[in-house]
């Protein structure tokens, strides 16, 4: 591996020839949805963690400052995820595909219901079964991703710590070849009948974001200040201090999962481990100690985009938002970080022919109902240019490829399809930044959620920015442009044609969209303010 990693010296040895993993970290993967990116990120945050096998476990969302700044070489981050199979079985069994319900699953589901029923006390006129159905519907309502999968491979929305779980996959082929006698037999031979380390859906993207965060917060203050000045991202002075940002994030991330009533976590943990303890003991423990697993690594020089992600997270956590709205915006923030990380890292190690200022690329954003062909064409060109940028990066001399031509072509094709340019395209389409979802002519646009995210993370909580300043900061942080001058810069970067004439009202749709969302205050025909209406949800 040629690109330096964080933690320093950690190498990916499962598939060392994959050039996209060498370039972007272990790993960003097309099959991981935005929901699962957030679930995995919060799974690390909520789990017990340690640095290396002999490290002292800690349960805070982030390591302390001393651990961050003194992170040892080859110091693998390890965390102890909980499987929560009993809770998943209780919530998702009834809504799973009939052909995915093995007989041992049915038997344990029935036994679990019976045990829960004996522990329920209802007032006169009530029925235990009604309580069970109500609880089952409650937790089914938190279904987040994987509705078409086996019950154990699904994920909850991470509304509280008690329902955040690691990935578990039922090995249907092994069970068909050698059927387990019962549930005890299945969990007693856990490695035969269940897979908990393949990262098929929780594909390690959340691990990359967590490590990016750690890497960003261990930087020297003078390095951060210099980068902020040169890049034009203009974050607040106190946010430029890694120690202050670390303390603020440690506090706010700790509060993030407390907005849902504690009762939900208490009930979830009672269902999962209160009435039947053999299952969590088999899945979560190893030799009478928590089952720690290794996290991956991120590029060491990706700390800059990691720092922006840290600021985005802090502002989202501080804003007084509804629980579900905050989670939706956090999902989109994780997806936008995929786009930013792929693009910035590609520019960093494989500079394009025509360069622009930080972040080194430009995405021309058009109206959702755009009719003007020149505008659509420029937006389409920037989409193709970004995909090409990533394509070139995983073929640059920074990555190592096998000498055999056939092997090299096969590896590059797989990297393009699942880890490179197609990852950028699929992620952008999933969050509505790139439309249409299918067919040719994909171009960049915005929806209401993306607009909300840009305002909440760009404008300080409860603050205001002039409309022009807002556009400049969004361009500096995400490479998104909206007006005629921005389109000229984007066109120059994408295809070398910077002489475009789109008129002074090219971005009128953007102003109207902000106004319709209640985020724009018009002071005059030539001056408007973009307002972040969210207040500080944690102010005393």
Entry summary:
This protein is mainly alpha-helical and 540 residues long. The strands form eight sheets. The chain has a three-stranded antiparallel beta sheet with strand order 2-3-10, covered by helices on one side. Strands 15-18-17 form a three-stranded antiparallel beta sheet.
Q: Would you spell out the secondary-structure blueprint of this structure?
A:
Blueprint: E1 5-6, H1 19-24, H2 34-46, E2 48-51, H3 65-69, E3 77-80, H4 85-92, H5 103-118, H6 128-140, E4 143-145, E5 155-156, E6 169-170, H7 172-177, H8 183-188, H9 190-193, E7 194-195, H10 205-217, H11 221-231, H12 242-256, H13 262-274, H14 278-284, E8 285-286, E9 289-290, E10 293-294, E11 298-299, H15 303-318, H16 323-349, E12 363-364, H17 373-393, H18 405-418, H19 421-430, E13 434-435, E14 443-444, H20 448-458, E15 464-466, H21 467-478, E16 480-481, H22 484-495, H23 508-516, E17 520-522, E18 528-531
Parallel strand pairs: 12-16
Antiparallel strand pairs: 1-11, 2-3, 3-10, 4-5, 6-7, 8-9, 13-14, 15-18, 17-18
């Amino acid at each position: 591996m040629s690109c330096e990693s964080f933690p320093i010296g950690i190498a990916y040895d499962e598939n060392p020839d994959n050039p996209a993993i060498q370039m972007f970290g272990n790993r960003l993967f097309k099959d991981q949805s935005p929901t699962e990116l957030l679930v995995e990120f919060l799974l690390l945050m909520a789990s017990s963690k340690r640095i290396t096998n002999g490290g002292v476990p800690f349960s805070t969302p982030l390591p302390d400052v001393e651990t961050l700044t003194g992170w040892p070489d080859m110091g693998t981050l390890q965390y102890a995820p909980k499987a929560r199979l009993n809770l998943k079985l209780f919530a998702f069994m009834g809504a799973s595909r009939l052909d995915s319900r093995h007989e041992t699953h049915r038997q344990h589901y029935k036994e679990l219901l019976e045990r829960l029923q004996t522990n329920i006390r209802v007032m006169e006129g009530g029925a235990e079964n009604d309580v069970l159905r109500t609880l089952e519907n409650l937790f089914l309502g938190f279904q987040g991703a994987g509705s078409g999968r086996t019950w154990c491979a699904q994920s909850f929305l991470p509304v509280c710590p008690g329902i955040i779980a690691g990935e578990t996959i039922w090995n249907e082929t092994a069970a068909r070849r050698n059927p387990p006698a019962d549930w005890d037999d299945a969990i007693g031979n856990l490695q035969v009948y269940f897979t908990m380390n393949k990262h098929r859906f929780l594909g390690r993207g959340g691990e990359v974001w967590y490590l990016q965060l750690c890497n960003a917060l261990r930087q020297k203050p003078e390095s951060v200040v210099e980068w902020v000045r040169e890049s034009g991202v203009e974050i607040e002075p106190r946010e430029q201090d890694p120690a202050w940002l670390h303390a603020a994030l440690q506090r706010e991330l700790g509060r993030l999962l407390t907005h849902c009533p504690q009762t939900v976590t208490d009930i979830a943990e009672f269902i999962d481990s209160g009435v039947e303890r053999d299952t969590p003991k088999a899945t979560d423990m190893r030799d009478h100690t928590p089952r720690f697993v290794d996290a991956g690594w991120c590029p060491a020089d990706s700390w800059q985009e990691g720092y922006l992600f840290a600021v985005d997270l802090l502002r989202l956590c501080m804003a007084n938002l509804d629980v579900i709205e905050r989670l939706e915006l956090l999902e989109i923030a994780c997806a936008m970080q995929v786009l930013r990380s792929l693009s910035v890292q590609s520019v960093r190690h494989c500079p394009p022919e025509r360069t622009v200022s930080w972040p080194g690329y430009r995405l021309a954003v058009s109206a959702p109902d755009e009719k003007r062909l020149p505008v659509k064409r420029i937006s389409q060109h920037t989409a193709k240019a970004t995909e090409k940028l990533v394509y070139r990066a995983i073929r640059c001399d920074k990555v190592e490829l096998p000498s055999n031509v056939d092997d090299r072509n096969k590896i590059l094709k797989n990297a393009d399809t699942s880890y490179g340019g197609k990852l950028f395209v699929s992620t952008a389409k999933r969050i509505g930044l790139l439309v249409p979802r299918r067919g040719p002519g994909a171009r960049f646009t915005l929806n209401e959620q993306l607009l909300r995210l840009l305002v909440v993370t760009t404008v300080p909580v409860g603050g205001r920015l002039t409309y022009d300043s807002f556009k400049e900061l969004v361009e500096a942080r995400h490479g998104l442009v909206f007006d005629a001058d921005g389109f000229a810069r984007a066109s120059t970067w994408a295809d070398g044609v910077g002489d475009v004439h789109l008129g002074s009202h090219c971005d009128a749709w953007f102003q109207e969209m902000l106004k319709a969302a209640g985020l724009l205050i018009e002071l005059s025909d030539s001056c408007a303010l973009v307002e972040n209406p969210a207040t500080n949800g944690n102010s005393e």
